[in-house]
């Protein structure tokens, strides 16, 4: 497993932000995609508001406000319930409390005819339309907790977007079952033709020997999220909540920018008082910011030199010199479709062979990228 060392990049700013402003530390950089994983512990709360009950609306709203402050694009949530105590739908309640218009995807890991069901959920912004959903059972064991929950199966919840897969899971407490789950998850990669992110509570650590990382994840995934401890309880400094990245065909489509296990007092937009993150759950929310290396956009030099006009199923390029340029057309998933050359008096790129859809044009002169341009084939 390749562990991305972000501490060298962010260590100084991490220390500085402790003394200045906790929210500033977690402010979302412009142009990144922010992923998040959070075991919300059924929104029970871990302070005086808990009251021994899962029905306290304050705890649910607090989780939603933490999400609001961090503003992730995609969120993996573990330990949710639906049609359970008070007939609540916890994923929707959290979404509403965040005030963000997410798409919601829920998956049941365990069902109780008397107490509703339990599972995992994904919240994903509409900037990333969900094109497909898959729910897979993973092996688990029966265990007890308070309130009593019987999980004899675990879940892998997967969504597909145009450019990546995102998976949410909560692996079992038993080492053998986690290892078996890792094999099942890795086998799925054979059928996934895009970069993939795997997020969740692994109940395992990259520092432990003999578990799912040693058996499965180290060979197929890059550890993009922080390696700081992710448990909010002061006497438990383990790292078990992760966001992993599978680099499809070594194309390096996404690069890690920064990652944190969020702790301390978090300022909430529009609220007078901050939230102490450690009180919201026994796990800390983990955020990961990534850069899309295939994103498009015109640089200033592109705007001043090259103009692209689309007409009659072809692209016309203006502002080219008499030197040869190489162009590439990619699908939005990053697959190469075609390539060719253009120059000042040979400036047309045909589109009639393309199916209807969204594409990317990349224009290069030698080793220099002149422009990346997004267009629609009607």
From TrEMBL:
<feature type="domain" description="Endonuclease/exonuclease/phosphatase">
    <location>
        <begin position="36"/>
        <end position="283"/>
    </location>
</feature>
<dbReference type="GO" id="GO:0003824">
    <property type="term" value="F:catalytic activity"/>
</dbReference>
<dbReference type="Pfam" id="PF03372">
    <property type="entry name" value="Exo_endo_phos"/>
</dbReference>
<dbReference type="InterPro" id="IPR005135">
    <property type="entry name" value="Endo/exonuclease/phosphatase"/>
</dbReference>
<dbReference type="GO" id="GO:0016020">
    <property type="term" value="C:membrane"/>
</dbReference>
<dbReference type="InterPro" id="IPR051916">
    <property type="entry name" value="GPI-anchor_lipid_remodeler"/>
</dbReference>
<dbReference type="InterPro" id="IPR036691">
    <property type="entry name" value="Endo/exonu/phosph_ase_sf"/>
</dbReference>
<dbReference type="GO" id="GO:0006506">
    <property type="term" value="P:GPI anchor biosynthetic process"/>
</dbReference>
<protein>
    <recommendedName>
        <fullName>Endonuclease/exonuclease/phosphatase domain-containing protein</fullName>
    </recommendedName>
</protein>
